[in-house]
Amino acid sequence: MQIPDTFSKSAFPLSQGGDVPARKFAKELRKQRRDHRLIQVRRAVGFWWYRLLLIVIAGLISPFLTPLFLSDPKIILGGLGAIALLFFVAKYADWGLFLVAIFSTAFFPDVLQLKSLSASPMQPFIVLLFCILFVQTLFHVREPIFPSFWSIWPWLGIILIAFVSQIMVQFTWTQVVPHKINGNPIYFDEIFGVALFFFPLITVLVTTICVSSKERLIEYIQSAFVILAVLGAVIIFYDFRRISATIYTFRFADPIILWMGLRALAQLLAL
Predict the structure, then answer these.
(1) Taking the CA atoms of the chain, what radius of gyration do you get in angstroms?
(2) CA dist 267 → 228, 261, 263 (Å)
(3) In this predicted structure, what is the pLDDT of residue 252?
């Protein structure tokens, strides 16, 4: 009587008349159990990593943002919207690039004023997206394609020059020049200035990683820019007709239409 080969493709190989030793079978069984545990760990990490990351971020920023949330209801609503965006981007990181492109337009005003630097929602958002992609790559949730060295070497050179120049400045500092401005050590501003040189490189990395896994994002971003540009043109046309403006009206001024600068709207139209 022949026994059908039902378990020939099963996970546990059968011993055939002593051809496969018991020790080898036990070794293969232990290996399969390790593989199964590894798969379970990867699934658990893929399910929990962004939740744990958001908890850590919330714990770090809550002491600084809680007084602002309690003093202004608008900040509370904005904070709730930001939390919803955080969950969305943590779960769908590729679509975070689309939101970054939308946030970079003139329709979204500045949300942060740090000395002479004004930051729109795009700057902190793209840094957050970079951290999320870094964690995903670290835990093998995604296998990104990084830009080639020949496409990013100018930014690497600029960052290197920034570090070298700051080191040389500290060694050749003139004693009569004060080391503090308004009571703050000037090296804080120097460190902040060097950190800004990393922003273009972060933008290139985030764009390459997201587009490499979802190429249709390029089309979606272009379509969104076209729609927003048409909307901006309608707003400009209406406001200029309302005040009877000409091409020379704002020759020596930067007008504001609602909360949007005309210069920022012009950049969107040109894009």
Answers:
(1) 28
(2) 12, 10, 6
(3) 65
